[in-house]
Amino acid sequence: MSLASFIRWPLIAGASDEAARALIGAHDGWALRSMIDAEEACLYCPPETGAPARGPTGAAHYELDLASDTGPVNRPWGVIMLVAFDVPDAMTAQVERWYDDEHIELLMRAPGWLRARRYRVRSHTGGPRWTSMAFHELADISVMDSPERAFARSTPWRAELEKGAWFQGAGRGVFRPLGC
Which among 45, 110, 140, 170 could bridge 29 via Cys, Cβ 3.0 to 4.6 Å? Predict the structure, then answer.
């Protein structure tokens, strides 16, 4: 399995992108800033960036094993969307089938939905307990308003999964590269 990591931590209110980059430091991963909560910085280290990084003290740090990947594209992404779940053990196989057999396939039909990578959380320190994280590379934020995404979120299979409290408690984030 390919190892990846995701680290997120709060920023001082009003911190610039330059200050966020200084806090993140020199790493081979992708330095990100939340588009929802401007006072949060992240470092995503997918498998191709090399060894996972460590964040500053107090950061939430997730070590990840790659479970599925739609594959690389020759087009730059502009936004990373994260969805994280704490899937009950009894539901893991069904959720993985849903993601791989239905959900990702439907999302990838949206123009500008470039890549989707799903990970199993190997370990974590700080932050919420998640067992599964999916990182979606999008051309830009407008892709989230696509009819293809709306359809992928309206299937009977998803509606059934959505009834679970674990699904309702999903973590979500939308991030842009620092400096953009």
Answer: 45
